[in-house]
Amino acid sequence: MKRILLLLALLIFTISCGDVEKKSNKNDDLNNEVHRTWWKEAVIYQIYPRSFKDTDGDGIGDLKGIIEKLDYIESLGVNMVWLNPIYSSPNADNGYDISNYREIMDEFGTMEDFDLMLREMHKRDIKFVMDVVVNHSSDEHRWFQESRKSRDNPYRDYYHWWPAEKGKPNYRYSLFDPKGEAWKYDSITDAYYLHYFSQKQPDLNWENPKVRQEVYDIMKFWAEKGVDGFRLDAFQFVSKDTSFPPLPEGYEKEVIKYYGMGPNLHKYLKELNKEVLSQYDVFAVSEGAGSTFEDAHSLVDADRNELQMAYHFEGMDVGNSLDGYKLSEFKEVYTKWDSAFAEKGWLSIFLANHDVPRMVSKFGNDSPEFRKASSKMLNTFILSMRGTPYCYYGDELGMTNIGFENIEQYQDIVAKNGYEKTLNEGGDISEYMARLKFLSRDNGRTPMQWNDSEHAGFTDGTPWLPVNDNYKTVNVEAEEKDPNSCLNYFRKMVDLRMNYPVLVYGDYKLLFPDHKQVYAYTRELEGQKMLVLLNFSEQTANLELPDNLTLNKPLINNLEELVQEGSQIELQAYQAVIFDLK
Ligand code: GLC
């Protein structure tokens, strides 16, 4: 499990660019000292469509449900929405196994629903990011069905095949396979095909120019419809060393180096940028940032004209231990990534998504006493750092891990296959279950909690994944009424972010690096300076501010009181405060 999570966390990156003049990013202000752009100023709300709102009673969220909730989304103040994949899919991996890239998944609705959703978003000045999953397709995609028919099928080279007469291919680890093998033997043509993820997700062969053209055409199809951005799933894996040499000892520590970030990645990125990204006013964000800062820069530095944004996993990985994490490590990771990107390139900032547990359960404290304060504090962090914030649905309410006990309760392919693998290998199943309870992807996928009616108002049917028991108190309707709720605090914090460019573009400087409880930093831009103080602990924390910092009144405070005397500040458990500095 550890390995699976490590590998998952190490995943992916992506695209754009070209040697042609860029037409995208029309709002760029290149004369400004900081390179200002709409996608840097955005606050993105990520929706797991399966779990947001069901309107037809099948227990699965749908596009009509998202349309119904657009006023709510607008009320958050966010101005961009990213949806996990909504294409036709047999759902081996909840939509990350696509069988038709130009169709909407039946459970989610129709293309008409999509068009309406996009129009309604744009009416509200909300932009839309499409998830693009092209490292692999579903094995039920027509390309693969053809490809496996015969060795001379025109689609054969759309995938990576290894003829059995050459012997068994060199071992590759599969992230999602119960046996851990990424090569699957197929008797029809007496050959193995490659699947870095599950057997139902064969890897596409990007060496084949036809495959690349198919991808560009698909992206153009969606760009023509008016989508504003692309999130490139597992993209750093698309370029591989296709001689598939034996893996050296210790390869696990550098998975990306041996599995992805291959020799042709930048060639593909430039091509994709030229063909698609430069032709529309869109941005692309890559899942993953390679394994070094150099890799990350090679993907997103503006002068390379490849991708616009990436996300690294190092910050999120800090919280992967069941014994908690050290704030010093958390600060170190975020500070080092910020300084590496201070001059060039752009990253995302997030503490949760559909592949990890709930933010407050992992990085905060989900006990009844501290849930509210700590989730507000974490949202203060995300929304006051440099980088585009990605806020995961339900985190604005302080939704928590569901913490299943039995394997039968899990729906996620990673959880189920990992269980089987642990059994097959005679591993410690109780340790596996304990890790799963905390780290499982299903923790972050439970239905959105709208109100205190049955199934939290998510569905009239039976939800595909149970609703968290705390929905009676943690829900939108209840939080709307409470001025001190997580929800209302989130709105204030988004508003602050939107109104103060210093929070988007300002220089970041870490203060009190050795403080064990407090993460403190300043942001500074063109004469404006802010101080962010975050108590990451359940104990009171004391700080003496340096003489050169003179505080104005706090711009935001997640608790009602603030204990301050001159330069002495006493932060309560999980208190978060942002000051404007004189
Ligand atoms: C990415 C997605 C994850 C998916 C995997 C395979 O990591 O975020 O949910 O399972 O790619 O497509």
From TrEMBL:
Residues 1-18 form the signal peptide. InterPro entries: GH, GH13_cat_dom, Glyco_hydro_b, O16G_dom_2, SusG-like_C. Keywords: Glycosidase, Hydrolase, Signal. Residues 46-445 form the Glycosyl hydrolase family 13 catalytic domain. Belongs to the glycosyl hydrolase 13 family. This is Alpha-glucosidase.
